[in-house]
Amino acid sequence: MNDQSSSGLLETTQAPAVVEMRDIYKIYGSGTTEVRALDGVSLTIRAGEFVAIMGPSGSGKSTCMNILGCLDVPSSGEYWFRGVEVGGLDRDELALLRRNFMGFVFQSFNLLPRVSALGNVELPLIYEGVRPTRRHQLAMQALTNVGLAERVHATSAQLSGGQQQRVAIARALVTEPPVLLADEPTGNLDTVMAGEIMKELVSIREQRGITILMVTHEPEIARYADRILFFTDGKLVRDGAPAEVIP
Amino acid sequence: MRALDTLGMSVQAIARNKLRSFLTTLGIIIGVASVVAMVHLGQSATRSVTEQIASIGSNLLFVMPGSAQRGPGGVRTSAENFELADAEAISNEVDGILVAPALNTSATVVIGNVNDTVPITGTTNEYFAVRNHHLDYGRVFEANELSSGAAVCIIGKTLIEEMYLGQEPLGSTIRVGRTACRVIGVLEEKGESMGQDRDKAILMPVKAVQRRLVGELDVGAIYVSALVDGTTGMVQAQIESLLRQRRSASIGAADDFYVRDTQDIAQALESTTNTLTVLLGAIAAVSLLVGGIGIMNIMLVSVTERTREIGIRLAIGAQARDVLTQFLVESIALSTLGGIIGLVLGVGGTWLVTWRLDMPFVVSPAVMAVGFTFSVAIGVIFGYFPARKAAMLNPIDALRHE
């Protein structure tokens, strides 16, 4: 209920809600071995926000991220994505939601091995049924936007970690989704590279007004966001600007 | 998702792992190749048998003394042999036939310095038409030569090749047994038939063989050819009743002669080769099935191996059916590829074997179509389970898979 009152206050100054979770539970196992990965989480995220999800390992931040990204479904509770109750959707409808409205960036980049950067970026467009010439054009543009115009034919083995993550960002953004989900995007990168990737994300957000949801455990990375959700033991315990949440 | 893109993805996946793809298709290649080769070889054998029977003479009946149960070869029972009069009677009483008496024996033949044992047939001029074995050059027997049993002979090509050593045979005199015999003609080449060299033969007037070689006045067999197709059954019945009268067989007693139709022999042989074809084809089909299981195996391994890739695809918006189609198309592409290679190898193998064994080379579009269709169907059937497994993966589990 706290959430609702606070979002009620913000409504006048902020965009409509992209994500709304109400009493979300994710429970693994049963009886004595029951694990509550998410234990009654409610939250609202509005269009254009840059939100960092923090917490120690096992706090439920990744589970929350997976449910937010429609990769996983909650055990109970309501999750509204852009006004659609996700709980009522089947596998393929969830896939369509991901395809049309979300871009994913992972800690381990998750590029297809032995496929060129261009091929990787074209992949989401293939599933959208975009024609090859148009696809090529869009993928080239997306790779140029992340500064990899020269490396489009390199496979992931021929790219540095930072470059691979840029390819992943290009792949996530090539369909121009309204929401970008990043799961520890700098986790496998050194500090210099991590800083570059974060600046990239910030500039993308400024240019496009895209909503970014990012999981991280590093406070320095979380500071790039303008709102931090802090999880402990499956519960959302703190929610606010970086300065408020991180001492 | 566009169909062409699905195909592209599958081809890429196959090309990325060439050795494995080849080994996967090997089962299908061997399966299709063996099915195609076996059935084609079977058809070729059938054709070969039919052609050999036709070369013996079409609509041909063998009339032999003895009991039919003893089989065609080596019948030397107490049954009385035929006489020339029997052949003449058949010729006179039954319409629409040609009759050639045949007295078969063999004798030592000496040509120049070379001698060899050669099958000798004493017969008449009807022999050429009845047995479908005509003169290459020279002349047939003259009427007076037939009636007097003159020492003239018509020889087969093998004798010229093996015994004449390049000399002109026509008009030469050769020794057949103890008789000096003038060569008046040469038979056209027939080649081998049922393991016998039909060109190693000498034809003489039947009376010449009776008097000069055998010393008996009977004939061993009577060859009858029906002039009209499809009348052999009727002709056979007429000959049987005629011979029963002439040989005064008591009613109910077993015949002491038999009439055999080459059509019957052809049919018997054909049904044997057809049975063999089906049997071999069935065995080969089992290998095709094993090939299909091989594809399923590798596809299952491939799905496990590419679990993470599947997770990525699902995360960026692939629907279950996109993943299903991708893997299904991959297995169909593999099995189709195997099918095509198998067809080529199967037909090639058939050609090689028929060429080595001097059999007619038969290519049946129907057999090839069935082989190809089966290979595609196997891709669908055995590819579906692995593809479904891939499509049903949970995106989160798939992404976490190491």
UniProtKB/TrEMBL annotation, chain A:
Identify the residues that the record assigns to the ABC transporter domain, covering every copy.
Answer: 19-246
Report the principal subcellular site.
membrane
The molecular function terms in GO held by this entry are: ATP binding; ATP hydrolysis activity; transmembrane transporter activity
| GO cellular component terms, A-Z | plasma membrane; transmembrane transporter complex
Q: Tell me where the transmembrane regions lie.
A: none
Q: Where in the cell is it found?
A: Cell inner membrane
> CDD domains given for it?
ABC_MJ0796_LolCDE_FtsE
- Alphabetic keyword roster: ATP-binding, Nucleotide-binding, Transport
The protein's matches in Pfam families, at most eight in alphabetical order, are given as: ABC_tran
The record describes its membrane topology as:
Multi-pass membrane protein
Q: Which family does it belong to?
A: Belongs to the ABC transporter superfamily. Macrolide exporter (TC 3.A.1.122) family.
Kindly give the PANTHER family that the UniProt entry links to this protein.
ABC TRANSPORTER ABCH.1, IMPORT ATP-BINDING PROTEIN
Write the protein's name.
Macrolide ABC transporter ATP-binding protein
Automatic annotation (TrEMBL), chain B:
| Residue ranges occupied by any MacB-like periplasmic core domain in the UniProt entry | 21-241
Say yes or no: keyword Transmembrane present.
yes
The entry's localization annotation reads: Cell membrane
Which sequence ranges are marked TM in the entry?
Answer: 21-42, 278-303, 323-346, 366-385
The coiled-coil segments of this chain are none
What Gene Ontology cellular component terms go with this record? plasma membrane
Q: Which domain of life is it from?
A: Bacteria
Q: Which InterPro entries match?
A: ABC3_permease_C (IPR003838), MacB_PCD (IPR025857), Macrolide_Exporter_MacB (IPR050250)
Where is the major localization of this protein? membrane
Q: Does the keyword Iron-sulfur apply?
A: no
**What keywords tag this UniProt record?**
Cell membrane, Membrane, Transmembrane, Transmembrane helix
Q: How does it sit in the membrane?
A: Multi-pass membrane protein
- Give an example GO molecular function: transmembrane transporter activity
Q: Where is the ABC3 transporter permease C-terminal domain?
A: 282-395
Which family does the record claim for this protein?
Belongs to the ABC-4 integral membrane protein family.
Q: Which PANTHER family match?
A: ABC TRANSPORTER PERMEASE YTRF (PTHR30572:SF4), MEMBRANE COMPONENT OF TRANSPORTER-RELATED (PTHR30572)
Q: What is this protein called?
A: Multidrug ABC transporter substrate-binding protein
